[in-house]
Amino acid sequence: MATLSINSLGKVYPGGVTAVSDVNVDIADGEFIVLVGPSGCGKSTILRMIAGLEGITSGDLQIDDRRVNDLEPGERDIAMVFQNYALYPHMSVRGNMEYGLKNEGLPKAQIAERIAEAARTLRLEEFLDRKPANLSGGQRQRVAMGRAIVRDPKVFLFDEPLSNLDAKLRTQLRAELKALHKRLGATFVYVTHDQVEAMSLADRIIIMSNGKVEQIGTPMDLYLRPASRFVADFIGSPSMNVLDGTVSSDRRSLQLNGSHQIDFGAELPAAAGNQIAIGIRPEHLHQNTAGETRIELSVGFIEQLGADTVVHGTLAGSQSPLAVRLNGVQARDSGDSIALSCGRDQIHLFDGTTGQRLNWDNQ
Amino acid sequence: MVENRPFLTFLTHAVLIIGVLFLCFPVWMALVASTHGPEALSSSPIPLWFGDRAWENYSQLLVGGLPEAGGVPIGSMMFNSLIMALVITFGKIAISIISAYAIVYFQFPFRMGFFWMIFITLMLPVEVRILPTFDVVVKMGMLNTYAGLTVPLIASATATFLFRQFFLTIPDELVEAARIDRAGPLRFFWDILLPLSRTNIAALFIILFIYGWNQYLWPLLITTDESLYTVVMGIQRMVNSGESLPVWHYIMGTAVLAMIPPVIVVVAMQKLFVKGLVESEK
Question: Domains plus CATH for chain B?
Fold first, then answer.
């Protein structure tokens, strides 16, 4: 259990490729941090730098106020769970779990005690003498977690641990992970590309793209106040509708690409003639005209999910894609048009060129 | 193949049986010949069934010593061969697994250069470098020693290459997990790499043991002292025993004896050997 502080961390590979630049974050004791982003965004590189498997090019990394930049992975008091489990194939489950402890030189009695406890926690008692080859994927991943738990590390690192499992098992292990975090009260750093995993597990999410941090915040921060168009697009499923438009001369309405004009009734935070984008989540559009902002959807295809129906299509009279999530089972034909509206407080604005969030007085 | 055609079944079996007979006949002849007296084999037709001198012939060979082979008992030649084969085998495996470990897992200047240097020696057969090697051995005073017999044959590019290829298939995460588990380089090698290489080592052991056992040219060059003769050399000397008739019954007996250790090694390790050739346990 420990704090982790990352100061202007950077990684440049020999050959000049910058994988990560200028990451700053302070992780509190017992916090569950999820690093999320598309593949190649540098999230795994950060995790591997924390683990010590990857050298740090610039910046500082501190665990419990001790600078660990130059320590070997084994000396940092961390444990890591890998995507492909990385269990030693020739050792039994017990052997896998006790290997690190043996190397540390812990007394035998203590090792046995820790393994018994971890096995109980993870329901692995009956598998202790099996080889990894004779376990299912979910069991292997639990062994990998057991190997981390027995070491009683300051920080737990997870590198996409659930990616190799099927959807059902993933949901189940996700819940187990959350419970495990609660019981251990330890600091977790978790890498995933799956935003659902990130939203459901994290105390705070670090969302990254192209080696840079886009936003750090609680899941609800990211959902309600995305700092950029990238975050808005990445968090939420189906993703947020983002429509480009031009600010009108009186700065009170937006001319969308196509025929739509949206009146805001308040001054927009951008100069007349500027390109900006508005973002509306599919679940915030409603099939009525009660909201201040109205748009029309031309139906393309629908996804019936049972509890609700996602209608994909385009903004009427344009090519801009638009989706809406409607409650319950809804039947619509391709080509139909649906009148939709949403509250002004649920509209996000983004700068047309930088993609940064524009704050405005919409509440 | 799951075809069920009686004629094809018959044909395949016939081909296999002929092949087996073809392979086994010389061995059978050697076995039979070693149980007869010298006259039986110089006259026609040669016998196809066991004679009555098996006990005499073999006891003479193993302990008595033959004037035709320099008067040394085959037992001591077998011992020399065994020492040579085992030292070469263990030496080759040890050196090549260590050098492959260095080449795959450590960063050092000219790493690939070293790898290619080792690799290129694959192209040079023993016969090509035999004179310079002989020269070195002479200058180091290793003529007529076990060291001279074995050390120059220990370096092995093939085995190094095989271990390197195997190490490259071991996932990086395993190495990383071991680093996090505080295993230093030696411990990783001993606790993880070596057990994982078990089947590869067994396969190489068989191949290299037979290679070492069958060495002929090199021992011929390096030994003049009869107490260091190997069994393969012994056979050759008996065949070329000057003006007298070749002692075929003894020669065949020696050949049979010389076949035994490689057979034992193959039989004892064949399970691991096959595993090592086909398996990818990941």
Answer: 68-278 (1.10.3720.10)
Q: Is B177 on the interface with A (CB under 8 A)?
A: yes
Q: What is the pLDDT of residues A229-265, one digit of tens each?
A: 999 999 988 899 998 888 888 888 888 876 678 887 7
Give every CB contact of residue A241 below 8 A, 6+ residues apart in sequence: A279, A280, A281, A282, A285, A321, A322, A323
Domain residue ranges in chain A: 4-227, 230-358
Closest CA to A315 of A259, A232, A236: A259
Euclidean distance between CA atoms B139 and B128, whole angstroms: 19
Using CB atoms, which residue from A79, A80, A103 is nearest to B183? A103
The minimum CA-CA distance between B166 and chain A, rounded to whole Å, is 15
ipTM: 0.83
Record: fold of A4-227: Rossmann fold (3.40.50)
What is the CATH number assigned to the segment(s) A230-358? 2.40.50.140
Half-sphere exposure of A223 (CA within 13 A, CB side): 16
**Predicted model pTM:** 0.82
Q: Would you state the structure tokens that stand for residue A24, as one six-digit string? A: 């700053």
Under 8 Å between Cβ of A352 and A275: yes
Q: Do domains A4-227 and A230-358 have the same CATH topology?
A: no
Residues of B in contact with A103 (CB under 8 A): 181-183, 187
Alpha carbons B214 and B134: distance in angstroms, whole number: 19
